[in-house]
Amino acid sequence: MINDDKAAGEPTSQQAASQQAASQQAASQQAASQQAASQQDTVQAANATAAKPQPYAALGLTGAEYGRIGSILGRRPTDAELAIYSVMWSEHCSYKSSRKHLRQFADKAPVTDVLLAGIGENAGVVDIGHGYAVTFKIESHNHPSYVEPFQGAATGVGGIVRDILAMGARPVAVMDALRFGPADAPDTHRVLPGVVAGISFYGNCLGLPNIGGELAFDPCYAGNPLVNALCVGVLRHDELKRAAATGPGNKVILFGSRTGPDGIGGASVLASASFGGAGEGAKRPSVQVGDPFMEKLLVECCLELYGAGVVVGIQDLGAAGVACATTELAAAGGTGMQIALDTVPLRDASLGPAEILMSESQERMMAIVTPADVEQFLAICAKWDVLATVIGEVTDTGRLEMTWRGELVVDIPPGSAADDGPVYDRPVRRPGSQDGLIADEPSRLPRPSDGASLRAALLTVVGSADAGDKTWVTEQYDSYVRGDTVLAMPHDAGLLRVDEANGLGVALAVDGNGRFCQLDPYQGTRLALAEAYRNVAASGARPLAVTNCLNFGSPEDPAVMWQFTEAVRGLADGCLELGIPVTGGNVSFYNQTGRAAIQPTPVVGVLGVHDDVRRRVRSGFTAPGDNIVLLGETRPEFGGSLWAWLVHGHLGGLPPKADLDVERRLAEVLVSASSEGLIESAHDLSDGGLAVALAESCLAGKIGCSVAPQGELTTFLFSESAGRAIVTVPSEAQSELTNLCARIGVPATVIGVTGGPALAVSGGFTVSLNELAAAHGAALPALFG
Amino acid sequence: MTARIGVVTFPGSLDDHDARRAVRTAGAQAVELWHGDATLHSVDAVILPGGFSYGDYLRCGAIARFAPVMGELIAAAGKGLPVLGICNGFQILCEAHLLPGALTRNLARRFINRDVTIRIENASSAWTSEYKAGQEITVVLKSGEGAYVATDETLAGLHRKGQVLARYASGNPNGSVADIAGVVNEAGNVAGLMPHPEHAIDALTGPTVDGLPFFTSVLQLVRAA
Fold first, then answer.
1. Considering only CB atoms, which chain A residues are within 8 Å of B196?
2. pTM here?
3. Which of A309, A378, A473, A724 has the greatest CB tally within 10 Å of its CB?
4. Chain B residues near residue A384 by CB distance under 8 angstroms
5. Is A426:A91 a contact under the CB 8 Å cutoff?
6. Does this complex have an ipTM over 0.95?
């Protein structure tokens, strides 16, 4: 920048105005709190009034948990301390029901040298070579998105972006995996447009390209949509930041938005209480409101702070706000902290210490800064019009101490809140209904072989909201900003350029399948992993690492815990077999309406590295006259398939077989064929099988195709056997591809040729591209306008 | 000497990075200009990039129009400095009254990210001289408030004086009056365009390379001066 200095030195009119507002606020804050001060619960008062009844149950703590706080502190907690423990020990922050099982990701981790930071950090960091690293993570914002779709989804994007920013990285792209109730249900018309508009509003205004994701519908999500947002960031190896408060005497700086009464108790109350249950009226959570403009300033401000070398440690403020940031920073640093809570800049002067600690106001960060660097830190924040306030300092006491109007209101060992939360070994029981579900095999479903029936089935599947064109959604997202998007929707994976000089890039895909997981959560999760892995390979990138967002019902239901433990076991086993580590993730429990849980829905994100994005492979056909080659083996596998669900309303039997050795070999063929320049296009086979893949490749490339079926027609077209993809290859490269496949051990069958104005299945039917496009394109606009 | 083209960064500018890359691809030097700095640092031309300046929480461009850098810019534009406003930059130029008309919410009330074909109507402006009049190009439109509006009188004047820079040629995506995608001032040096030519300079990351002549046009002009 050529003129930063002047701007930094002279406050703009906005800064002057905000400083004036700050002093006015301080005055009113003081007036409001002078009244409240006398009633404030202090450590001294807690010692004096040991028997005072406290509302621990309303804050979501059990009697045993409350008792444990008392034994940690040797007295009852103050109200502010109770607030800290209640949010830090909530399911959302403490992973108390899942922690025991998540250990498998570490215990079964494959041997790898690509991880620079792993589970436990804000996000995992992966070495992609040439001195670059990427960090990526997916997180849920399901419950807020049902209550207030627009702001719920918007702040979901904002939260995950700050996680990535806190690692020292520049956030470079977002993705989202969305699941709603039936597409034609009235409430879906409230929730879906709001969620999409919220993601559009926040992501676009923040200037991050949205490069892909998922959209699915099922009645089980009608009262509990899934909104999972992923962010990826890029950094140099030496730019990695840690969330730790080290160096006694260093200052604690809170910067970004002011703290208001947003989502107070949201972390424990909102995310952990299922909808429609008893006590709904007693808990009135409020969803946070997002300000993407402030987040954009925060991003640029943080990157300039990192560049200036004035940040010792940094943490984003997400769920549980100041309570979480202070306890985690101090616990990770093995230090203590002294915080003056009344220095926190407020948007609402009536907030007391407990509310300030629990507030989930968005767009805030906390940094640890040496005293010598404070001035420069504040000057950089002023340049970006970002409010920054020293609220305390790091100590060597090992205690987190907070004062309010000069009195001590918090005095706890930070690790007791951040790391030593309760861990539950919840009862696990395979539900009795599982056997009946599996016994209801799809082999009983009629599979007519006449052309008219098959044609009708194809149009039903391709024209469904599930498999139809997603443009209505994706057109609301900016995919171009920053100018490094090489592939985005509707391709199998998003692909980003990282280095313009050498073409280094990263590919990302997110996948999940609730139907498969309902039938078999272990295999279903492996299938989700396999699909994301395959999608990344289809772009020509080598899969490297995994993130996950585990969406399940209530952990207090043993059947849900069985689904959860099976899913975790499936993912850990699958990652070990594929040799790619889980770098981090998120668990979202209590996704249910009343007593009805959603289908178990683990969403798996896979990141791959592309050694030269200029050799990207797209999913659409590129030229007429190319051979269409089906890679992999097709079996009559319809359990949980889109065909069974859409054509027959059936969900039963077992999902397709997940053979990860087959997936690994398929990926090897896709990556090698791409790097050797053998293939023109590649498209993975998943929901809707070959029929949907062919239709999508035809429509994306505006080129038809003729295929000659192998075996039984319904199986050929609609089976969802895993480990498959179609590639197109010019006839002169066919023998080379055949040899490659033979060498790696992947079955390859030429099933047809590209060209013509239609999708033609010999001995079956023909659908013109116009009719196909009309059916494919109409699904969402017909429903959502 | 290499032409120096400034790209202004307002708080909330997003496509500044991309505009600078387009300038470099065209062969000029990209100069970062800061909104709070009341000087143009002797650049030869200025681009106001896309984004959401100040979050667009008020009317789009209404706050950015008062940034310190805009005082110098408005004066220099009056003396012939080439200025291109893209998307949010176009909105800012309208708010600053350097261009007539205004941009309002898309007809469908949704953000639209779409590759669109536009027809270059005026190929004699500072930013379009490398095109032929009537040439159709495919570039990216990505905006929530891209519907161009103007009074009948203003429209008549735009038509009469050849100030319609470009029109949507593959259907009207956002409800813009007379399919207008961009306009230029009477002198031909200040242009505003809703679609993004800077995102169509590299076939790897854009739909086409059709946008590059916007940047080479101004480079030719600067070199000739």
1. 480
2. 0.93
3. A724
4. 11
5. no
6. yes
